[in-house]
Design brief:
The structure holds 2 protein chains of 2 kinds. Chain A is mainly α. Chain A has helices at about 15-45, 50-65, 70-85, 90-115, 120-130, 135-165, 175-185, 195-225. Chain A has one domain: Orthogonal Bundle (MetI-like fold). Chain A is about 80% helix and about 0% strand. Chain B has 2 domains: about 35-145 and about 245-295, D-Maltodextrin-Binding Protein, domain 2, CATH 3.40.190; about 150-245, 3-Layer(aba) Sandwich (D-Maltodextrin-Binding Protein, domain 2), CATH 3.40.190.10. In chain B, a hairpin with a 5-residue loop joins strand 3 (about 80) and strand 4. Chain B is built from 13 helices and 13 strands. By secondary structure, chain B is of the alpha/beta class. The model of chain B is unreliable at about 20-50 (pLDDT under 50). The chains are: A mainly alpha, B alpha/beta. At the A-B interface, helix 1, helix 3, helix 4 and helix 7 of A face helix 1, helix 2, strand 2 and helix 5 of B.
Chain lengths: ~220, ~300
């Protein structure tokens, strides 16, 4: 215990603080994930249209998200909106907006790929049965596309949870920041604490992300029948 | 035709959801947002300036709460103890300011890279995060009177303590960490000294301990703490180069708050407040030998 610096973990309310930090990270990422899933499906369908204006706009959006580091987006939304519009967004709200903005674009791209990969005869059969375009999308195409999406979107969700560590830059104290605080506060008394604390953080992230993998496996098995 | 209606509907829906989402984001901060707009409206009438980001002293007092940006992981200047309480030399001072102002405090955890930005957007009222006064920063924020000194220091092994840079022989090398003021200073002022550059603190430390160089130059607070924690090393040169100071900073133009902090620092000098602060927070790391070198009392640099 001593060698790993795990004793530091049980000093005062350190463990509770770490769990509180994990909750903060999950709160931000899960709200953002929920928004990204809904908006991403809509955005993904938009991207499959041939309208040149929509194509150009969604292309620009996707490229912005790909090119801009999330760090820059966080600074833009948190500090930029205050400079330009005078809004006083709190740091958590700014984080949710940035992560939803990012997630929607990536999710949309995944949905686009999945929708395109649904065979053409599915559309033709639906139209032949007299379904409207929206009926075709919402009852035939999207349900099939979503099955293909599961593994890819789980990857995105866990990536979003892990990337929340960036929000420390705008003053949100989440799990990784708490761990740095604990390590620094004890650097004289337990110089080895870093190893034990980071190990704990690893376990916490694992506990946070593992349920999504289980859920994905479950859904894949259920829908394959 | 059908398609274009569908497309429009989808586009409107997406836009609507995005709008709602962004409003939902704002709603969480409704109370402070409305505080802000009413207070900045008052400001605008007085100063006729459209972009006042800060809160004046009276506005802070009447809101009953002050936001102070501090470090949360820089022991012993600003850190969080095991009970989740902010502690350290900067925080000790912050707590005194808060007490004398008679308001509640919200500490905001800042990073070195975001300190200026927090003040420029008025997201905090004061930054007390070991903020070194530089000309470049002074263009963007207003610094109050200083409360601590920083300079460069040089640490070397006891077997051959370097007390002056002139003692270095032609083939002696000095360790620096890339991007620090020590690197810039030695490169400019002593171009003949051979430097060994490392990216991280840990690598520089290992190099010194392996005897790869004659000495290590860094911020004096860092080398002093190093020599105290590692037996067999002495800080031969505790002060080198331009002496810089650490001071509180407020948003550019926030004169009422700046004046109040300055008068507070002067008044605290009479009761030797910063010496008490040093003894409460820094003796554990630096011992009492460096008290006079590091502490600036009453805003007067010796």
């Amino acid at each position: 215990m001593q060698a790993l610096g795990l004793d530091v973990l049980f000093k005062g309310s350190n463990l509770l603080r770490l769990l509180g930090g994990l909750w903060k990270a999950l709160e931000i990422s899960l709200i953002a994930v929920a928004l990204s899933l809904i908006l991403g499906v809509l955005f993904g369908i938009l991207m499959t249209f041939r309208n040149p204006v929509i194509r150009a706009l969604s292309r620009i959006y996707l490229e912005i998200v790909r090119i801009m580091p999330q760090m820059v987006l966080l600074f833009l939304v948190f500090f930029g909106t205050t400079r330009v519009f005078g809004w006083d967004l709190n740091a958590e709200a700014a984080s949710v907006i940035v992560f939803a903005f990012w997630g929607t674009a990536e999710m949309g791209d995944l949905v686009r790929g999945a929708v395109i990969s649904v065979p053409k005869h599915q559309y033709e059969s639906a139209f032949a049965l007299g379904m409207t375009k929206s009926q075709t999308y919402f009852t035939i195409i999207i349900p099939q596309a979503i099955r293909q999406l599961i593994p890819l979107s789980i990857n995105l969700i866990t990536r979003m949870i892990k990337t929340t560590s960036l929000v420390m830059m705008i003053g949100v104290v989440e799990v990784l920041k708490v761990s740095q605080q604990i390590i620094e506060a004890n650097r004289m008394t337990s110089p080895n604490a870093a190893f034990g604390i980071y190990l704990t953080v690893f376990v916490l992230y694992f506990i946070a992300c593992w349920p999504f993998s289980i859920l994905a496996k479950h859904l894949e098995r259920k829908w394959s029948n | 035709m059908k398609k274009s209606i569908f497309v429009k509907a989808l586009a409107i829906l997406t836009a609507a959801v995005l709008l709602i989402a962004s409003f939902a984001g704002c709603a969480g901060n409704e109370s402070s947002a409305s505080d802000k707009s009413s207070s900045s409206a008052a400001d605008k009438e007085e100063s006729k300036s459209a972009d006042v980001v800060y809160r004046t002293l009276d506005e802070i007092k009447s809101s009953g709460k002050i936001k102070i940006g501090v470090f949360s992981d820089k022991n012993p200047f600003g850190y969080v103890d095991e009970n989740g309480e902010y502690q350290g030399y900067d925080v000790y001072f912050a707590n005194r300011l808060v007490k004398d102002l008679g308001v509640d405090v919200e500490f905001v955890s800042t990073e070195a890279a975001s300190r200026v930005e927090f003040l420029e957007t008025g997201k905090v009222d004061i930054v007390l995060a070991n903020f070194t006064v530089t000309d470049e920063r002074a263009e963007k924020v207003d610094f109050a009177l200083p409360y601590m000194n920083v300079a460069l220091g040089v640490v070397s092994p006891d077997s051959r303590v370097i007390k002056s840079l002139d003692e270095l022989k032609a083939d002696d090398e000095v360790i620096v960490i890339t991007g620090t003021t020590a690197e810039t200073y030695l490169t400019e002022k002593y171009p003949n000294i051979k430097l060994q550059k490392y990216d991280t603190y840990a690598n520089a430390k290992t190099a010194l301990e392996n005897g790869q160089a004659a000495a290590w130059a860094n911020d004096n607070t860092e080398v002093i703490a190093y020599a105290l924690q590692n037996k067999g090393y002495t800080v031969g040169i505790p002060e080198l180069g331009s002496k810089d100071t650490i001071a509180p900073a407020v948003s550019k133009g926030n004169k009422t708050l700046l004046d109040w902090i300055n008068s507070e620092i002067e008044a605290l000098g009479k009761e030797n407040f910063f010496h008490a602060d040093y003894e409460a927070t820094l003796t554990g790391t630096y011992g009492s030998d460096y008290e006079e070198k590091l502490v600036v009392e009453g805003g007067k640099v010796n």
